[in-house]
Amino acid sequence: MKKDSFYITTTIPYVNADPHIGFALELVQGDAIARYQRLYGREVFFSTGTDEYGQKIWEASIKEGKNVQDYVDHYAQKFIDLKGTLDLSYDNFIRTTSKEHVRATQEFWRLCDVAGDIYKKIYRGLYCVGCEKFLTEKDLMEGVCSLHPNKTPEMVEEENYFFKLTKYKEQLLQYLSNKKVIIPEWRRQEAIDFVKDGMEDFSISRNKERFSWGIPIPGDDKQVMYVWFGAFINYISTLGWPDSKGKFEKFWQEGKRIQVAGKDMVKFQSVMWQGMLMSAGMPATDVVVYHGFITGEGGVKMSKSLGNVVSPNEIVKEYSTDALRYFLLREISSFEDSPFTMERFKDAYNSGLANGLGNLVSRILTLSEKYLEKCPEILEHSMPQEFKDHLDKFEIQKAVNFTWNEIGALDRFIQETEPFKVVKTDKEKGKKIITDMVLRLYTIARMLNPIMPETNILLKALIKANKKPDKPLFPRKD
Ligand SMILES: [Zn+2]
């Protein structure tokens, strides 16, 4: 990577429910990449936020008998609180109801309008409030929305504004012909197929009578913006565009632009948003990294009704932030669906952290405290190339596996060399082995920086102080 400024975003979730573990995965993945890039001296801007407009939110606020702004404030706070819960290092949290975002969205609309890409059209079709979109043949199952079978779709006819996405068909195919724009590479075909077969101009407004909780459209007080159009613009409004251009220039125009999203977002992030950027005359996203979903046991969807929903807050309370980050980044595939159960979590915690890392730290530092006068001299720049290669390709799980392979190798090294025996017969030789072990442990500690930031700091401090931990880093759970 040549560029020195590095920009990374997550998608922004709807604020009509508590944060779930799937979004925690996206945040922690984004955070690990941001921290890794900072280690390399790149200037990083990491952004996340919340999507607070839309009919679903409006209806949910009525259901709870709350004023809609109070309702979104309440839920947005739960997402803001994840910063501490998950130890996130983001630089800005953007809310779509903020003044800056509203202003940016209206300005972006104006740019697309000037480009001749916004027009009015009468639309008639079945509308699903759950999806907040008109349903197509593919969405229907026995006359109802396949995602919301309990919400009867309404027949709606109205005049809406449309965005001329089809105008950018060739330009989008050109963009998608670059293998690097989508990770994992095999999801790229999905985007290409959508552009070739399924892509249409999309509606970007709603009639105010039916849908009032949205951003006003410049010059038309009968319509408000449709959630999708407005939500995408958070990726540049968070940088202060259009009022202050400094961060926008540094990170969006000149930086490396990385966006993390779920695998169901391919046509939104890699097609619709890219078409909007082309219309506004802005550079396209360099890479969109798509993660899979976290499922319940046996691959079933997590849902309240099945009672298999896992709350990131509860896991952190029972274990720790770093324990959750470890599980999300190592036991959950970086790109494919993976199951999450408390059983799996506990097993992974005990084997990888209590017995694995925790035990290793205690063994090595007990020896060094006893036999070395002080911490050996540390060469600061010793991050293994293989670890870096994985993270440069956003293969976080492989990077974490590499780290734990090193932990296993160091464990075997202790068993084979038996420094605790050697030091009693040949003191100098024993001390040399212990010194090697401490240096290797320090390299492991450095690799923990993007994965488990708190453990990284603690472990480096213990090594430098040449002290064994007072209590186990990761107490075993039964
Ligand atoms: Zn639906």
From TrEMBL:
Record-linked InterPro entries: Met-tRNA_synth, Met-tRNA_synth_2, Methionyl/Leucyl_tRNA_Synth, MetRS_core, Rossmann-like_a/b/a_fold, tRNAsynth_Ia_anticodon-bd
Keywords recorded for this protein, A-Z: Aminoacyl-tRNA synthetase, ATP-binding, Ligase, Nucleotide-binding, Protein biosynthesis
Coiled-coil region list: none
Top-level enzyme category: ligase
EC number: 6.1.1.10
UniProt-listed CDD domains: MetRS_core
GO MF terms, alphabetically ordered: ATP binding; methionine-tRNA ligase activity
Domain Methionyl/Leucyl tRNA synthetase: 138-364
Enzymatic reactions: tRNA(Met) + L-methionine + ATP = L-methionyl-tRNA(Met) + AMP + diphosphate
Transmembrane segments: none
UniProt record, GO biological process: methionyl-tRNA aminoacylation
Transmembrane recorded as keyword: no
PANTHER family registered for this protein in UniProt: METHIONINE--TRNA LIGASE, MITOCHONDRIAL (PTHR43326:SF1), METHIONYL-TRNA SYNTHETASE (PTHR43326)
Similarity comment: family membership: Belongs to the class-I aminoacyl-tRNA synthetase family.
Function: Is required not only for elongation of protein synthesis but also for the initiation of all mRNA translation through initiator tRNA(fMet) aminoacylation.
Protein known as: Methionine--tRNA ligase
The species this protein was found in: Candidatus Nomurabacteria bacterium RIFCSPHIGHO2_01_FULL_42_15
Organism lineage string: Bacteria, Candidatus Nomuraibacteriota
